[in-house]
Amino acid sequence: MIASVTHPPIRSYVLRQGRFSPAQQRAYSELLPRYGVPYAAGPIDFKALFGRSAPVVAEIGFGMGETTARIAEERPEVDFLGIEVHSPGVGSLLRMVGERALTNVRIIQHDAMEVVRDMVPAASLSGLHIFFPDPWPKKRHHKRRLIRPESAALFASRLAPGGYLHFATDWEEYAEQALEVLSGTPGLSNTAKDYAPRPESRPETKFERRGIRLGHAVRDLYFHKD
Q1: Quick check: is 194 catalytic?
Q2: pTM recorded for the entire structure
Q3: How many Å apart are CA 42 and CA 164, to the nearest integer?
Q4: Which sites bind substrate (predicted)?
Q5: In sequence order, what are the beta bridge partners of 125?
């Protein structure tokens, strides 16, 4: 008898050994118990989590959190669920949450696909942000990209009717692929002919500034859930 082999899931990230600054380490230690949400294979009750009924926007891969904190500060009527695997980035966002006394941010430090699949209820999100994810430029690594047909279908299923998916990248080929995939995802409709102007609601990110310095054009995709 041939033993069955269980292959590990394909990840859209690689864990890097980043260093905490003292402020990030302190925020991580002191604030994660308050604002962090442990991964669990069961749906979140957003009303109980945030202590109110409000629209919920999830962000996959918030990096160092500067954009997330700014958007949350500018939109206090909306609750934000940030998903990130890298500890220094989590510590960085927690530092800003504490400094700005933000009450509308919660963080899950875990694989985003598992979080969306297992913890985010169907039709529960008002929006989903995916800003400058790893482009995985080598063709053999494209299967690791966040925007693929199967993941796009999952994301669409978690958006409430009228919700939106906002994707941004400075990698032209990834933008083209994402446009094709999202355009072919049932339940999603493009708000533009192809790429959308950057909405004022999305602040310029450090990755965006770096891409512009390198001569990369930044492209936004903004899709609505039917």
Answers
A1: no
A2: 0.90
A3: 23
A4: 138, 170, 205-208
A5: 159
